[in-house]
Design brief:
Elements: E1 10-15, H1 19-23, E2 32-42, E3 49-57, E4 67-69, H2 72-78, E5 86-88, E6 91-96, E7 112-115, H3 118-133, E8 138-141
Parallel strand pairs: 6-8
Antiparallel strand pairs: 1-2, 1-7, 2-3, 3-5, 3-6, 4-5
């Protein structure tokens, strides 16, 4: 299957590098996980698309404002497990699409799980913007 277009709201399989790992000098994420494309911006200079991905994790956030819990119906829509999960809005990875860390889903030729429903994606974007405005957003550049 061809690569999907990098559109906001698309949930991809990605080797996410946590900010703490990036600060420690790691260059590769330790495991593949779902991540949500929250921004996709075409660079005027060369037409490349710069993408920002937010990680999805089973770990409950210490700071409730740093993540948005994914409702079970949304998880089922995406084909994810039924365990509680959160989209971390306080950190992300930036990279040029498709980058080296995009991964195929297990036992599949797809790279994505599908799109978050628009209403829920808007909730994620609001929380992401709130973190950015509060100066609490950390981004690891993966270029």
């Amino acid at each position: 299957m061809p690569l999907p277009n990098p559109e906001p709201g698309l949930v991809i399989s990605y080797a996410y590098l946590w900010h703490r790992e990036h600060r420690a000098g790691q260059e590769e994420g330790r495991k593949d996980r779902p991540g949500v494309i929250v921004l996709a911006v075409e660079r005027e200079a060369d037409g490349e698309i710069n993408v920002t991905v937010l990680p999805i994790t089973h770990s409950a956030p210490v700071d409730p404002g740093s993540a948005v819990e994914i409702p079970l119906p949304v998880k089922r829509h995406l084909g994810l497990d039924d365990d509680r999960s959160w989209i971390v809005v306080a950190e992300g990875n930036e990279f040029l699409w498709p980058g080296y860390d995009l991964r195929k889903l297990p036992n599949s030729d797809r790279y994505d799980y599908g799109f978050l429903p628009p209403r829920f994606f808007n909730q994620v974007v609001k929380a992401f913007v709130a973190c950015h405005k509060a100066g609490r957003r950390r981004v690891a550049s993966r270029e």
